[in-house]
Design brief:
Elements (H helix, E strand, L loop, with lengths): L6 E6 L2 E8 L7 E2 L24 H10 L5 E9 L10 E2 L3 E4 L36 H20 L30 E4 L8 H7 L5 E3 L2 H10 L4 E10 L9 H29 L8
Helix pairs in contact: 1-4, 2-5
Length: 283
């Protein structure tokens, strides 16, 4: 389990964010586990929150109020196209989609601007998501890719390289550039159950990987004008696409150990680099 030794809580304008920790001695790198930081049991103790219960609003505004300059998230996902994005691979999405596109916004919960924040407003609600015109996001994304690149060689026995990840662009696919063409799209479902086979047949036309959390985080982070870069571990093939004899859930459980080791390496590598100041050298 990734976490710093010292835990603390922070009261945001929308509720408590708990189990926060720093991953470095300099206290520059903040870490929260999305499933263990917003949900309390009857005794007030933080407990596991399944995807549909996670309070993404509290997480994202909490990180901003803690003066976080950018977010790099790690996601656990299923592959909608196993031949293109195999189980055991690590990818960096350049776009995302919701299959149930209900409004995900801070509007009516925090002071928000329309196209630009003004005064005490926390962010803006009208923006083009995951756009190559977002220079801060593009810069941070390129920095994350370069920072994580050495992890592939160090853990080659536990990472499956996807087609078109060669040439030093890992964990990106096809190219490190962000343009109108979509290389890897993350599709978010509502959870907490896995998707039906019929649903997957629809979703694979929307994207390449499927999860239950990160499109919400990405949207809210963009509203707050905080760059958000997503790195995803592919734990299993989506339901109806898996060739594993035990099906997609067992496939996930079988890959859990190797994925956990690689995920730890990703976090440790990022933490060490961010502790030195990030892409600007001054965070």
């Amino acid at each position: 389990t990734v976490a710093g030794e010292e835990r603390f809580s922070f009261k945001t304008p929308l509720g408590w964010l708990v189990n926060i920790s720093f991953l470095d001695a300099e206290k520059r790198v903040v870490f929260v586990n999305r499933h263990l930081c917003t949900y309390m049991d009857s005794e007030g103790k933080a407990t596991y929150a399944p995807p549909h219960v996670v309070d993404f609003h509290v997480i994202m505004i909490g990180l901003k109020k803690l003066n976080v300059k950018a977010v790099c998230a790690i996601g656990s996902t299923g592959s909608l196209r196993p031949a293109q994005v195999p189980v055991g691979s690590i990818v960096m999405p350049d776009d995302y989609a919701f299959v149930l596109p209900a409004p995900v916004t801070f509007w009516d919960r925090l002071p928000m601007g329309t196209f630009n924040p003004e005064g005490s407003q926390e962010g803006k609600i009208h923006f083009a998501p995951a756009s190559g015109d977002d220079k801060a996001w593009v810069l941070f994304r390129a920095w994350v890719q370069k920072t994580l690149s050495p992890v592939l060689a160090e853990h080659a026995d536990k990472i499956k390289v996807a087609p078109n990840q060669e040439g030093g662009i890992w964990p990106c696919v096809g190219s490190t550039e962000v343009g109108n063409d979509i290389k890897i799209s993350y599709v978010q479902t509502s959870g907490p159950r896995f998707e039906t086979r019929s649903e997957i047949q629809v979703y694979k036309n929307l994207g390449h990987i499927v999860g239950m959390t990160c499109s919400s985080e990405w949207t809210l982070s963009q509203e707050l004008c905080v760059p958000y870069v997503l790195v995803c571990a592919i734990d299993n093939s989506a339901n109806g696409l898996s060739l594993h004899p035990g099906g997609p859930v067992q496939e996930y459980l079988d890959h859990k150990g190797a994925i956990a080791e690689v995920t730890g390496a990703l976090v440790n590598t990022l933490s060490a680099a961010l502790s030195k100041g990030g892409p600007q050298g001054s965070w």
